[in-house]
Amino acid sequence: MNQRGRNWGGNLTYGVREVRLPTGLEELQELVATTPRLRPLGTRHSFNGLADTSAVHVTLEAMEQFVKVDDVSATARVSAWSTYGHIAPTLHDHGFALPNLASLPHISVAGACATATHGSGVRRRNLAAAVSAMEFVDGTGELVTVSRADDPDIFAGCVVHLGALGVVTALTLDLVPAQPVHQRAYVNLSRSALAANLAEILAGADSVSCFTRWQGDVVETVLHKDMRDPADDPTELFGAPRATRPRHPILGLSTEPVTQQLGCPGPWHERLPHFRLGHTPSAGKEIQSEWFVDRRDAADALEALWKAGPDLDEALQVSEIRTIAADDLWLSPMHERDVLALHFTWILDQPVVDRAVERVEDVLAPFDAVPHWGKVSHADRDVYASRYDHLDDFTGLAERFDPEHRFRNTFLDDLLG
Length: 417
Ligand SMILES: Cc1cc2nc3c(=O)[nH]c(=O)nc-3n(C[C@H](O)[C@H](O)[C@H](O)COP(=O)(O)OP(=O)(O)OC[C@H]3O[C@@H](n4cnc5c(N)ncnc54)[C@H](O)[C@@H]3O)c2cc1C
Prior knowledge:
It is built from eleven helices and 19 strands. The protein has two domains: 67-178, Uridine Diphospho-n-acetylenolpyruvylglucosamine Reductase, domain 3, CATH 3.30.465; 182-371, Alpha-Beta Plaits. It has helices spanning 25-34, 84-93, 109-114, 155-158, 191-196, 198-202, 298-312, 350-364, 381-387, 391-401, 410-416; strands at residues 18-20, 38-41, 56-59, 67-70, 75-79, 96-97, 131-138, 143-147, 166-174, 176-177, 182-190, 207-212, 218-226, 236-237, 240-241, 287-294, 316-324, 339-346, 370-371. A seven-stranded antiparallel β-sheet has the order 11-13-12-17-18-16-19. A five-stranded antiparallel β-sheet has the order 4-5-9-7-8. It is an alpha+beta fold and 417 residues long. It binds flavin-adenine dinucleotide. Flavin-adenine dinucleotide binds at residues 8-9, 39-46, 50-51, 60, 80, 102-104, 107-108, 110-112, 114-115, 117-118, 162-163, 167-168, 281-282, 288, 372, 374.
């Protein structure tokens, strides 16, 4: 099958009847204005029905891809379909970095921001929080620009938009000074040490990821990404020794695709993602889910998951525990709260995964967990409405920019009514 006909994980065949690849802005505007139902598609890395449609997919891969750095304002205007891996070297050449990156560089900037994609770090926000302006073709075919400076009443509602407002053509991103980053893994941190020192462990580096299968009594890998001098790295982490060889998050898989570890400093974009641009990331055949809980509930949520660990074994490849700092974006799962992110890389077996997802959702329900917009969950409108105070405001924005519901699909109809 043509790769465009299914998502990256291989768990979803799109119901699409046509894929359109406009080559310029006017063609895109004409397409939107004359197509009753269409859905913008990025690099197909989401795992649920969010990007799906039974009508027309529009992808911007045939449009001009650009990265325009403004050295004075420390911002970059980038084409929407660009991947982070594609734009990062140019930013780096100008002496700039992005505030954070996700686990892999192959994701489009527009698709990542649409779903509040994130990396890790107690003081680091999700990738959408770096957006200072967004250009999109709305449901009437008009080119609209919204910016943090000029549209303070709606901007926070537009950035995490689930593809419901229009086809994003360009984004302006805030930049920070580039600094070398190094990674260091620690091995087999005991569950009791994690529980006793949770806040300190999660804040132990600029970015911390804990990988576990919730089996036995250890977190198999704690991965630090840090800008400080590697000579200052601790030799052990609450009894967990440093890794002496690179570690793949899924133990036993080849470490060839993982970005360089072992304390070797390098460019930010070659260390912040777990996986290298030139390789197939992660397991390649997988389904993913992720839930976010308030960081104040972190210890209790983790304890509850350890207890449920045996029930997840059949479906689970690996879990990743991360943190993300609060932002003000209406549909961000981190809206006005620091969160703990609980990620699950499942095997590619939907019925088995569905049972595990149900189990995790039961376990995390007392913590008002909210799912990742682009990953598998069974959440319905009631769940989202109870977690997002601005859901009705966002529905109003969607009506304003897409009055004829051109960008609607089943996921959005269920969510927005
Ligand atoms: C191996 C792997 C690792 C991942 N790691 C992480 C991680 O570390 N952190 C994390 O948070 N997530 C992670 N994800 C999830 C991923 O970041 C999100 O699903 C993201 O939305 C995918 O972006 P995409 O470009 O592939 O979007 P798609 O899946 O193509 O689309 C997602 C949404 O974005 C919209 N969209 C895309 N392009 C446009 C556009 N131009 N205009 C308007 N709307 C648009 C679509 O309509 C849809 O609603 C991972 C996924 C995979 C497969």
